[in-house]
User: Fold this.
Amino acid sequence: MTGFDRRLTPARPDLAAAHLKGTVEAARFVEGTRRRVVVPVADLRAEPRLDHPLDTQAILGETVMVYEETPEGWAWGQLDRDGYVGWLPAEALGPLGAEPTHQVAVLRTLVFPGPDLKLPVVHQITEAACVTVTETVERRGTRYAALAGGGFVVEKHLSPIGEATSPDMAGYVGVSSGYIGAPSGIVDAAKRYIGVPYLWGGRTSLGLDCSGLVQTALAAVGRPAPRDTDMQERDLGSLVPFDGDPAALRTGDLVFWKGHVGIVSAPGRLLHANGFHMMTVDEPLAGAIDRIAAAGHPVTSVKRLI
Assistant:
């Protein structure tokens, strides 16, 4: 089986999605079962091994079309969010259950066992996690949302599904509308991740990589984006001529290198998650271009979203 991107095609020599029958060769075709992520973050890998590098992550409330579960506790499937294919821990997935009503609208929030901020924290959930709120409760001046899966979060940390994921994104509408936020909105969404550790394959405030930052920032202003750098370079925006002069770039432009991407945050500035600083930083654009070029990677393209 050749000619297919294994990251986006649910097909292996031994097993493939039923809708690919006649398109790919496989020993067996299956319909798949849609499941929901029931843990704060689920790591997805190309191989069912904990020592295999992380490809991406699925967040609480997202759905996955599962085509195989193994006795060893792995599930192989495709994320509905961006079509990424790989292996996740089967215990991270549950039935679809009630449709989510809200999403986390801050970088992360705390889940308490009851409506009281003095109680021990059960766990944290990150921005864009989707939850089902069953009721709201006020306790000592703070309103809490009770979650269908158990636990309580501060109500103002949530926004209804379909609205912008961040309270400071007022004026932008959510993913369901298809509206594309202004460049300044994309930059504002990304800036909230400054200082977050660099994590290959990560896409949350606990750790993320360069393309994860771009995907997350675009989602915050209502624009879906593919997961990896090469996909983003291919599919996002329109090509902007670039002769090496950083002054020609506008706020919100995406600058691509082989295997890397950053966002022009202001004239002469670049915002990106990177392995050099091992975190998300906002630094001089010219210096970043020179440093990365010195490592053998010149700019490959600049894409303009609007």
